[in-house]
Amino acid sequence: ERLIAVYSLLVCPKFDPYTFYFSQGESAVLKCNTDIFRAEYKEILWFRRTAEQDYRPLFDTRHGVVPLDLEGKFNTSMLPSSLILFNLSQTDSGEYLCAVMSGFRLCASGTKTLLNFVDSDMYGSGSTFYTVRSAVLSSGLLGMICALIINALL
């Protein structure tokens, strides 16, 4: 008799995702929404879903599971409720989910983060988008400063 696979059903409270945009080579700090110092929290699980694969375990505070494609690219901070990803690339895009497990193997809380790759050349300092955006923002800021000065004088 041989065990082929073990499956668990994980049901967490619903939460809105946070979106983080990154460029090639940047780092990201993903934070899990929890108070990990509360006694009933026993374990934090991190999962990743990409375009190529459904949710897969990424890391857990109990067993330290690390997928081969992320070996050396991330670590947990001093607080296991944060996951730090280094040297990000387009293949790291996807949904990252953390689940805070209680002693009864119930998901007490969690956080979903969407990592979206942005080509830095697309909106680089030489791009039309950057030039127009900078001009609009600086004009808007100048207009607000003028309005404040006029209001102060009146």
TrEMBL record:
It comes from the Eukaryota. Transmembrane segments: none annotated. This is Ig-like domain-containing protein. Residues 13-100 form the Ig-like domain.
